[in-house]
């Protein structure tokens, strides 16, 4: 069952005195959306996942202040084209995966279960199989270095290219054995040794960081004055982008750092993380970080 992360922490940034218009940019299993609806707010949710669309249909039967649109969060301006011109009092972007996605063998995000090399959760034809079996050595090295922060990325890329000359790498478990035999020193004291490589392939496959940057370039224009932007990230690459976005667009001492007429009052000097009780109850939350800003214009 999907468990939304840091629900209490997020709700602490909601204006308790009025009904808010909220945009949930990554609906997933619907956990955060339901928490907002239970508080009486009006929620618009978006997600590109087909399972999310089915979950949304059930929620729509229970709440009349709820609308759902099947789209990627980077395309949020399409909501206005298709639905309404209103802006939002609160926008949430949760960059994690729903339990449904993690446990879907067809997607194959997890290295704990064997499946065909896919990792694409956006319903496109570009998969981890294509990257592992077709990318040239230099491109493989780039992916593992930039998105997996693997120091010996070139060594790993060379080994994969040599291995696939004899036989294509078709499944998650086959890839794990290749990683195991590569001789690469992964940072694996606290995490599974395949974590970095799987993360790198998933990011490349789904254009995760590119989509995040596209979203951040436009999200401010969808917020009401004093509206809240809350973003949950799950690894250092995402968190670095979010942190730098808030910093470069900060509003402090009556000045906009970006030299524009808008910015954010940073409400989280340090990212908020789940408490020990939540991490124990939901281990997947342990790496999550929440950053929040108030829109000023």
| Percent range of helical residues | 40-55%
Would you state the CATH class of the largest domain?
Alpha Beta
The largest pleated sheet is described as: 7 strands, mixed
Number of domains: 2
Terminal-residue CA separation: 40 Å
What name does CATH use for the topology of the largest domain?
Answer: Rossmann fold
Spatial strand arrangement across the major sheet: 3-2-1-4-5-9-8
Under CATH, the homologous superfamily of the largest domain reads Vaccinia Virus protein VP39
Overall residue-averaged pLDDT value: 91
Describe what you observe in this structure.
With 297 residues, this protein is of the alpha/beta class. The protein folds into two domains: 7-101 and 208-296, Vaccinia Virus protein VP39 (Rossmann fold), CATH 3.40.50; 105-206, Putative methyltransferase TM0872, insert domain (DNA polymerase, domain 1, Orthogonal Bundle), CATH 1.10.150.170. Helix content is 41%, strand content 16%. The protein is built from 13 helices and nine strands. It has a seven-stranded mixed beta sheet with strand order 3-2-1-4-5-9-8, sandwiched between helices. Strand 6 (251-252) and strand 7 (255-256) form a beta hairpin. Helix 7 (137-148) crosses helix 10. The mean pLDDT is 91.
């Amino acid at each position: 069952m999907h468990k939304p992360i840091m629900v209490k922490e997020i709700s602490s940034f909601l204006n308790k005195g009025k009904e808010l218009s909220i945009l949930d940019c990554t609906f997933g299993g619907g956990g955060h959306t339901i928490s907002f609806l239970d508080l009486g707010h009006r929620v618009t949710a978006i997600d590109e996942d087909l399972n999310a669309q089915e979950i949304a249909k059930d929620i729509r039967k229970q709440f009349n202040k709820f609308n759902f649109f099947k789209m990627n969060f980077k395309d949020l301006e399409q909501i206005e084209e298709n639905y309404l011109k209103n802006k939002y009092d609160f926008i949430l972007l949760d960059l994690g995966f729903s339990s449904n996605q993690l446990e879907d063998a067809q997607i194959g995000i997890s290295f704990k279960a064997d499946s065909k090399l896919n990792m694409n959760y956006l319903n496109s034809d570009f998969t981890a199989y294509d990257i592992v079996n077709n990318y040239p050595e230099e491109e493989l090295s780039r992916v593992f270095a930039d998105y997996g922060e693997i120091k010996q990325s070139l060594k790993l890329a060379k080994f994969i290219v040599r291995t696939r000359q004899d036989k294509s790498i078709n499944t998650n478990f086959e890839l794990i054995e290749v990683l195991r035999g590569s001789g690469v020193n992964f940072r694996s004291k606290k995490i599974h040794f395949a974590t970095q490589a799987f993360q790198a392939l998933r990011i490349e496959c789904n254009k995760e960081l590119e989509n995040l940057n596209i979203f951040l370039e436009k999200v401010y224009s969808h917020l009401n004055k004093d509206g809240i932007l809350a973003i949950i990230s799950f690894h250092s690459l995402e968190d670095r982008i979010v942190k730098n976005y808030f910093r470069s667009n900060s509003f402090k001492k009556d000045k906009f750092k970006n030299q524009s007429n808008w910015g954010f009052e940073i409400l989280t000097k340090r990212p908020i993380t789940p408490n020990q009780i939540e991490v124990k109850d939901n281990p997947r939350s342990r790496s999550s970080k929440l950053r929040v800003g108030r829109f000023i214009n």
